[in-house]
Amino acid sequence: MSGFRRGVRLGIDVGRARVGVARCDPDGLLATPVETVTRDDGAAARVCALADEYSAVEILVGLPLNMRGEDTASTTDAREFAAAIAAASDLPVRLVDERLSTVSAHAALRDSGRSQRSSRSIVDQVAAVVLLQQALDVEKSTGRPPGTPVSQEPA
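Above: the chain sequence. Below: its structure as tokens.
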């Protein structure tokens, strides 16, 4: 655990209509849901405001690669959203592989007895929790920050 950097992090699950936001405690023990942000022109600013509110040290944005690790239309969308956050924030922004986070989130909600319809409003938050928890686990096991940094130059 020596390589783990302390501090609150936000996990972001980028979707076409909604953005799920999760956060962890400063020791990175537990990721918890924060809110679902409507995907509009103010979404990146809202994520930055949440980062300020929770005194985050880093923002981790899920990168939805396909199962072969290749880019998809959603991957490009996530990269653009991460770049918008990086341009609007002084915090480091990293892209992390989230191939199974939404699938895992739907499975967890189904296992808890929720229907697809009743889960729609929180599935994005749960997906953000899953990707953040995976990223924390990677950092704890390797001692290295997860994913790849996003440049803070304006796009």
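The longest strand covers residues 31-38.
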